[in-house]
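Memo to structure team: turn this sequence into structure tokens by end of day. - J.P.
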Amino acid sequence: MKKIIATTMTCSMLAGAGVTLSGCSLMFWKKKEDPTLVPFSTIPSGSYQSFVKNWDEKEQPVLCALIRSSGEWNYWFQPAAAMRQKNALAPSSEYFETRQLMLATRVIQAPDAAERGQIFTADKVTMKGGVLKLEYRFVRPASGATYQIKDFLLVEIPKERYTTGPVQFVENGQKVCQISR
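Reply from structure team:
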């Protein structure tokens, strides 16, 4: 009986010490939040039954836009009636009350299925010195396809704090677009 009580007491003390130490680590060694980071999420290019409008990709290889309303969405995107019928044509008007979208698009060789999710990868969105910046990676497809498509990166960010100042798009470490607002 004494051995059971001693074992129980030892386990209880070890568990208490573990809880105390984990609590201390949360309090004293907590990494500071970076106030320049903007929360974001990526919206897959097939989420809406729309495609990006045409532009002169020889003159401007990367088309960039900041979309803050349904009207701006309709300016940059066109409905694609032949696509899957389960997707909406565009985000709702209510969507744009709290969110905005950053768009970077290119005309590229059609990717194969394995490359599809690796063409555009958003790394981070920051707000420093009044400049909103999207940094992302672009990997050109090597599928061998004989036709081209317009593919894009669509990044959603909150609207309330990020409404003024220039917007920069940085692809693979190089600034490819800047939008003044």
